[in-house]
Specification:
The complex is a heterodimer of chains A (167) and B (207).
Chain A: H1 21-44, H2 46-56, H3 61-84, H4 88-111, H5 130-157
Chain B: H1 3-27, H2 82-85, E1 95-97, H3 99-107, E2 111-114, H4 118-123, E3 130-131, H5 139-148, E4 157-160, H6 168-178, E5 184-187, H7 190-196
Parallel strand pairs in B: 1-5, 2-3, 2-4, 4-5
Chain lengths: 167, 207
Amino acid sequence: MEQARAPGDEGREPVSWLTSPWLTVRVQIGLGAIFLLAALPKITDPPSFAHMIYNYRLVPGAVVNAMALVMPWVEILAGLALILGVWRREAAVVCGLLLLVFLVAIGVNLARGHAVDCGCFDVHAAGKTREEQLSDMRWVLLRDVGILVLVVQVLAASRRPVSPALR
Amino acid sequence: MNRRVVWGRIAILVVLAIVCAAAANLAASKERKLPWVGIYARALDTSAPVPSSSESRPSSPSSAAPAPAAATGSAPAAAMGASARFPAHPDKASVEIGGDDAEALHKEGRLFLDARRSSVYAEGHIPGARSFPVWESDIDGRVKAFFDEGLDQNAPIVIYCSGGDCEDSHMLAEKLYMVGFNALYIYKDGFPGWSKRGLPVTKGANP
């Protein structure tokens, strides 16, 4: 706990461990790296990512391609901002919104029994059976909730400025 | 921090993403380029896989609906010619066929079209099949050029993709049906089914 305090914090309220700068910087980098890794295959192959979005059957055909082109760049910019510590609150909000979209997309398809490949970190069909895909979708939901917890941590911590030494 | 500043910065991030996407799409090769507005008729339809289209063409020739082709996996009647066994079906975009029929049509030298991505096509395809990747930006140009070749629109054409739930072949069939091709047959097991049968496969970007 001691190390979580920035110099000159004497007299102030003790820093909560969960929102300590030490932890926050690592969570930010981890979260940023996740979004960067997720964006790269989508950026290098937009038609395959468009195919993945189409498979979800949730958005009108006219916007499938636009989403496939723009969404990976939003992920990359938000990821980079988190890693560099620039506009981290805004970047965390963007990541949170993206995760909510992913959760709804997977959740709706899971609820209606429409099996899809996630397309989260790989944009090519995995050639799995319907049951395997549905099972994967349940894990993806859990994983995205876990990542959402990281977003909440960054947002909670970004209410206080990060010590320049840890930035 | 002021909420307006936060949302303002988020808007800047999104605008920057759109600019980057536009620049990257402009610089991308034709295999990786995407038109900004997609035309996908079944984008909200979860009843997959699509068996065949009942959508009618604006100037569909007509009502003389021929009997559908031999169904899945049935043994081809060797004595009959392809035009008799696989007639034109102007009332619907496509009819599914099984492995035996696909093999028979291939032996007769019928035209095969591969609807998968060009990179996947290059890794292996049915010998003689031409590449028509429906998810690549130049597909409409390819379809137009194909139409301009002046081929017999009532001669059977076999379209395939990756089998299973793959709908690429149905999407290509719809595009070809809309320009006037009437005898489109979808090999439903696709390339995986062909390989599983131990039939010959060609690699590379050419048929």
